[in-house]
Design a protein that fits this description.
Helix content: under 10%
Largest sheet: 3 strands, antiparallel
Strand content: 25-35%
Structural class: mainly beta
Radius of gyration: 16 Å
Strand order of the largest sheet: 1-2-3
């Protein structure tokens, strides 16, 4: 678990030369005014590094699907 300053994380992905950085988007849609005041960075993208490492995304050829 990675604590974030937003209550609605949406999509994590790994990046960086060694895939040792994590990027997490967050949502602000549906948050009421009090929640938006308490979470001013909601809707932003957060990044961090730690003791984790991701993998390169698998690619496939879409022209072979026709």
């Amino acid at each position: 678990r990675v604590p974030l300053p937003a209550s609605r994380p949406t999509c994590p992905c790994f990046g960086g030369a060694e895939f040792d950085r994590v990027f997490v988007t967050s949502a602000r849609i549906g948050l009421d005014e009090a929640s938006l005041r308490a979470q001013p960075t909601a809707g932003g993208v957060f990044t961090g590094s730690g003791a984790w490492r991701g993998l390169r995304e698998h690619r496939f050829a879409t022209d072979l699907l026709a």
